[in-house]
Amino acid sequence: MTGTYAHAPGFIVGDRPKIVTSRFEYEDSYTLTRYLATDGYQGLRAALSRPANEVHDEVRTATVLGRGGAGFPAGTKWGLTPQGVYPRYLVVNGDESEPGTYKDRLLMERDPHQLIEGCLIACYAAGLSQCFLYIRGEMALAQERVAVALNDAYAAGYIGKNILGTHFSVDIVLHWGAGAYVVGEETALIESLEGNRGMPRLKPPFFPAANGLYGQPTIVNNVETLANLPWLMCNGAEAYTAIGTKTSPGTRMVAVSGHVKRPGVYEIVNGVTTFRDLLYKDEFCGGIRNDNELKAFVPGGGSAPWFTPDQLDLPFEGSQVGAAGSMLGSGAIMVMDETTDIPAAALTLTRFYAHESCGKCTPCREGGTWLERILSRVVDGKGTAADLEQLIEVGTSICPGDFPHASNEKLGLAAVPFPYKMNTICFVGPSAYAPVNSALVLFREEFEARIVKRHTIPVTAVGAAL
Amino acid sequence: MSRLSEGNIRLAKEIIGRYPRPRSAMIPLLHLAQQHDGYITNDAMVHIGELVGSTSAEVYGTASFYEMFKFEPVGKYLVNICGTLSCALMGSEELMHHAEHKLGVKMGGTTDDGMFTLEHAECQAACTEAPCLQVNYRYRFRVTAADFDSLIDDLSAGRLVDEIPAHGTVARVAQHIPRDRGVGAVPPESVTEAPIWLDGKAAL
User: Fold this and answer.
1) Full-model pTM
2) What is the ipTM, given to two decimal places?
3) A60: domain range?
4) Which A residues 384-413 touch B at CB under 8 Å?
């Protein structure tokens, strides 16, 4: 069975294993009643029936990869807290705003109790004393659904003092942002939660697990990551790793948007589903709109270097996509068909990152704006050949060295693997350059076609005109 | 120009109480102020500073970082049209031109009657439903020019007041932690030991 749920616009169901979207089929999936009728809070019960360290081990064994972008295993992340330093906090990153991405919004709107249960399991396993659930400011419905779910769960004894009658006690505080992409970076998220401008912190320390909220050990986990935990606790690590591959177990939510016949958010089997499956198979997007040719696609959110049809047979698996010159990021594919104006498409992404730069690091603050202005000029047909070189020069000042890009048979290009070097604290600066670099490397002729051709005017002609 | 209302002061104190440090409540309190006045007034920032122990300059410093906070009145309905890649691929630029024409204002402008402010927004996390827009942070998906016109007509005629509150209100439901159920904030200085459930035994 394949189809769309009217109450969850964008989400497309199929006959595939469901770990985080199993309740989406119910129109009242967000209520406590429905949640309890569908094994709700059983994962918490299963967790509390075991010592905390065993629950942590189960998550470690399952290799639950972080779903926010970096793909760092949650169990390992929890283990990075320094010994004997308390209190420790949990901060839930629900500030989803990577271009092309939305899955956390659906998980918060459609199954808020599953997220809450995941938070509780994490707090129990890693000994976290208070949880802050940070939701993106612009997501009104998600904020409302999570607020109601929290109120109901408190009343029913699932959150707060002596959860399920045990000595496990933790509060979950609903917090929300006010519009700033960079706050999705975990140290910026913490700054924002402390009431400051949401600017990333200088690294090291590299992980808030060592030094985070109020200087305490803090675990920052993505919404989808935590939403995996109730199922994992109910079914065990063995069942979890039986889905997907060894390096990428379980499932992933992926949003495919742009020029496909059926854009949508899909829960796919991790590690094995290829980009070709996703874009062309009937159970997924069913092909490019109007059966046009595929020109390029962004495989992992707006920050990711682009792929062309040469990379279609790669599976949705982190290390292979990395070696091929890009990243899986936050699970978002944006598809461009043959009609796409590549420089203009790159400009929309570069404009995004230039706009969202927090201003802390000069290469990003200045460089992002330069990239946008120069690219804008080129797109408007007012650029020169020197502008194309300038784009690369500015980009290289944000990211020194070879920037990752895909291989291309026609152009005789070998891939430069991910990641890049960077002169900035966080990934916003490099992300402004990623679309420019991809577009320039793979489609340079489209830029050259629009630059102003400066012809030398013969002196005699000038004289004649005078 | 107004400080926080009596009701909001009570709510503000409840919110502040949930955090280990009062300053963490700054963004939630700014939202309360904006909900009340439609934008952030200077008096509200002074008042919020008093409540969380910061100067009004620090409050402004934080507030001015975030796109959603407005420091002068905007329209009753803030219409944000997304212009990032997925929406651009599906015609958001044309939609923006149409919107400017329909409302008679440029991007960033407010209609003379104070009903609508139009903004070019960045990715709103509805990329498969492009082009999309938000009115006071409520979504409209796969918006055509005709959809846009009827949306504006409905808003003008007051037909969507139940679904879309005036600018300033984002979530209409607040979290309330019952006094007898809440653990309370856990500030760094209050705890040095491991939580009691890390005793190596099953809790249940």
Assistant:
1) 0.96
2) 0.98
3) 21-235
4) none
